[in-house]
Amino acid sequence: MEESRKVGVLLVDDHDVVRAGIRALIERHEDFRVVAEVSNGTAAIEFCKENHPDLAVVDISMPGLGGIDTIRDITRRSPKLRVLVLSMMADDRSVLHSFRAGARGFVVKSAHPGDLMEALRTVSRGGIWLSPDASGHLMLRIQRGQLDESGPGPAAPNLSNREAQVVQLIGRGLSTKEVAQRLALSHETARSYRKAAMKKLGVSNAAELTVKAYKLGLLDWSDDGDQPKDDD
Hints:
Blueprint: E1 7-12, H1 16-26, E2 32-38, H2 41-50, E3 55-58, H3 67-77, E4 82-87, H4 92-101, E5 105-108, H5 113-124, E6 129-130, H6 132-144, H7 161-171, H8 176-182, H9 187-201, H10 206-216
Parallel strand pairs: 1-2, 1-3, 3-4, 4-5, 5-6
Helix pairs in contact: 2-3, 3-4, 7-9, 7-10, 8-9
């Protein structure tokens, strides 16, 4: 990319507040500009059919077309497009499948604004960026031989990304209300994801759900956390 011109960024996230925050951050830096923002993967693909942004910041947990499929499609259409994933969670499989789909960077939404800008600059210049929240844990699992690279996608085979996130948080001891707050969801929506995940996994309470999550690789036995809360 030419350094004399601004890097055109496409924002892909289903939360208006998140997009607004990233836009405000980017617009404070002269080397970047937001060329468009969309709320789902289908809109991102449609935009990339007619336009050619330099960089896309993509949330992998969106309703409808998932972030992984979105990344795979837009990078296939635009091989020069560089993708930075911005995710609430940094589980190993989400990271691996993001990079396999074509992403060049992975940042958690809790990252410091300075880290996000550094990730944007690194990826826009052709480099690779992996959030410290994800890299340390991922490397440790690789060293222990605990990572099954040939396994299913970023969640259990029959769980959506959002359902997997809810399962992970419940397994770490959060209540449904706390899960809703962490993922910026309504309590009713979080409860629906919880119930859907429990039905798909064939469990009837939070303890069984947690054990199942460990077996599926959604949680590590070394993860710290309180006892799961069997609430509504």
